[in-house]
Amino acid sequence: MEYHNPVLLQATVGGLAIKPDGVYVDVTFGGGGHSREILRQLGPNGKLFAFDQDTDALANAIADDRFTLITENFRYIKRFLRFHNVKNVDGILADLGVSSHQFDVAERGFSTRFDAELDMRMDQKGALSAYHVVNEYDQANLSRVFLDYGELKSAPAIARVIIEARESQPIKNTEALKHVLARFLPAHKSNKILAQMYQAIRIEVNQEMEALREFLEQSLEILTPGGRLSVISYHSLEDRLVKRFVKNGMFEGEPERDFFGNFSVPFKTIEKLIVPDAEEIRSNNRARSAKLRVAEKI
Fold first, then answer.
1. pTM for the predicted model, two decimal places
2. pLDDT above 90: residue 255
3. Of 104, 119, 126, 124, which Cα lies nearest the Cα of 201?
4. Helix ranges (DSSP H) in the chain
5. pLDDT over 80 (residue 101)
6. Is residue 238 classed as helix, strand or coil in its secondary structure?
7. Can you give the pLDDT at residue 262?
8. Is 234 within 8 Å of 94 (Cβ atoms)?
């Protein structure tokens, strides 16, 4: 099953500075592109653990004694690595966001291109779906979702219109949702605004910001000194969290200063922000908004 071309493949894996006998984690396995490159660089005694909460990813599992695929959300990285008797690792890779596979399978409801039931669950066993968010959240919570995760100034009005529309009948599919929200979709900006609306609902359904925070905090505990964290993000909400965490080891505020007045930080930045070149963007449209940050645990 082809998920997508791995974005920034060489830069992301290269950022891990792989040791042949090291232990590494790819927390967003997907189609396995990054994992295969890691395995190519590992020696016979190296180990790679991969996470993916989407059971569709099982079809891409790699037959290699050095490889273990864990079908869980990466917010549980510490727990499941310990289950496999792993307390520390030499590098962690994350390619955040939605895979091309998830966008391309119409019935998953991730894409604005298809009519589908309101789903958007990355973990297909998850209890919360886009249908529940759209049809059961109250006005205040709907407004919060569109404002915080879609960064839409019209969030209160969007929430109010959804509440009014669902009083007569449930909003069951993506086309019905588009119809309800048509007044907020001017022709010259409709695709961009609709993408922000979908992003907001998807992030809420999958608790993506909470999961990212938990993952980053645990990555700091799990990495050995000198271990690398290599993370690709696709929108400002993700990138803001990653940037702050690798800079300060926290998401808000500033770190403590030592006796000499220097900030005590847990990471050092390996390279400045890395983005795809024009050639990669031409060959892989998904790469256009990718931002790679690489940091090393001090």
1. 0.93
2. no
3. 119
4. 9-14, 33-41, 77-83, 100-104, 130-136, 139-148, 155-166, 174-180, 190-206, 208-222, 236-248, 278-283
5. no
6. helix
7. 78
8. no
Contacts of 115-121 with CB under 8 Å at 24 or more apart are 115/173, 115/174, 115/175, 116/173, 116/174, 117/172, 117/173, 117/174, 118/171, 118/172, 118/173, 118/174, 118/177, 118/201, 120/198, 120/201, 120/202, 120/205, 120/206, 121/205, 121/206
Helices 190-206 and 208-222 cross at an angle (nearest 10°) of 60
Pair type for strands 67-70 and 47-51: parallel
Contacts of 286 (CB under 8 A, 6+ apart): 4, 5, 7, 100
Listed residue (67, 76, 70) closest to 37, CA to CA? 67
Confidence class of residue 200 from pLDDT cuts 50, 70 and 90? very high
Q: Which of the four pLDDT bands, split at 50, 70 and 90, describes residue 263?
A: confident
Mean pLDDT of 148-162: 98
Reference 27, options 35, 37, 16, 19; nearest CA is 35
270 C-beta neighbours (distance < 10 Å), count: 17
Residue-wise pLDDT tens digits, 165-190: 999 999 999 999 999 999 999 999 99
Residues pairing with 93 in the sheet: 26, 230
**Which amino acid type is present at position 264?**
S
263: its two tokens: 């900030």
Task: Give, in order, the Cα–Cα distances in Å from 222 to each of 23, 77, 98, 194.
Answer: 11, 9, 25, 38
* Three-state secondary-structure class, residue 67: strand
